[in-house]
Design goal:
Layout lengths: L4 H23 L2 H8 L3 H8 L2 H19 L7 H17 L1 H13 L6 H20 L9 H17 L1 H8 L6 H19 L7
Length: 200
């Protein structure tokens, strides 16, 4: 019987996502990933090389999925609001991504796929800078800071869910609260980016 290589690789990636999100790179063992996947750990080394290569692949793949799901269609205020709202939606549906990013920041070292990620975000910064020059967005805020603020506004709810619940009194599984958070994020993003009228 032929070995299901693609299926085995997928099971290992899925298992690694769960383990890395829960324990970080340093706290995760190859044995734990292999056991969760139901695969001999030698397959992991054969397919991915080592644990670090698998970590980089898992995080890069999750960020590619985020980028595919969250599209900055334009730079109008409606576009900015929807970008923030869709970013929130994705992180709410995939809380493991916020955990991976937290672990990446805590453990130090070079980020996974840093060059491609930097290019991706700098393209957004350039879009915002152009919109500021055209008077569409507030030019009193550095465009790079604005991009970061919008992402933080949308993603921080999943990064510290316990803090959000203590402040709001409601957990993230409450659908009314989730909808209210999204409305707030969209409106706050638009207000943050709105061009200010300068005094005459």
């Amino acid at each position: 019987m032929a070995w299901d290589t693609d299926g085995t690789r997928r099971r290992l990636r899925d298992a690694a996502l769960v383990e890395f999100a829960a324990r970080g790179f340093d706290g995760t063992t190859v044995n734990a990933i292999a056991a969760r996947a139901g695969v001999n750990k030698e397959r992991l080394y054969s397919y991915f090389g080592d644990k670090k290569a698998l970590w980089d692949l898992v995080l890069s793949t999750e960020l590619e999925r985020l980028a595919a799901a969250v599209n900055l269609a334009g730079v109008g205020l409606g576009d900015i609001g929807e970008f923030a709202g869709t970013t929130y939606d994705y992180h709410a549906a995939h809380p493991e991504l916020s955990r991976l990013l937290q672990w990446e920041g805590l453990q130090g070292g070079p980020p996974a796929d840093a060059a491609a990620r930097t290019t991706h975000y700098r393209e957004k910064v350039a879009q915002f800078a152009a919109a500021q020059r055209d008077g569409i967005l507030d030019d009193c805020i550095e465009p790079a800071h604005l991009v970061f603020a919008l992402i933080a506004l949308a993603a921080w709810w999943q990064t510290v869910p316990q803090l959000a619940e203590m402040i709001t009194g409601t957990g993230p599984d409450d659908q009314q609260e989730r909808a209210a958070r999204r409305r707030f994020i969209v409106e706050a993003a638009k207000r943050l980016a709105t061009a200010r009228r300068r005094p005459a």
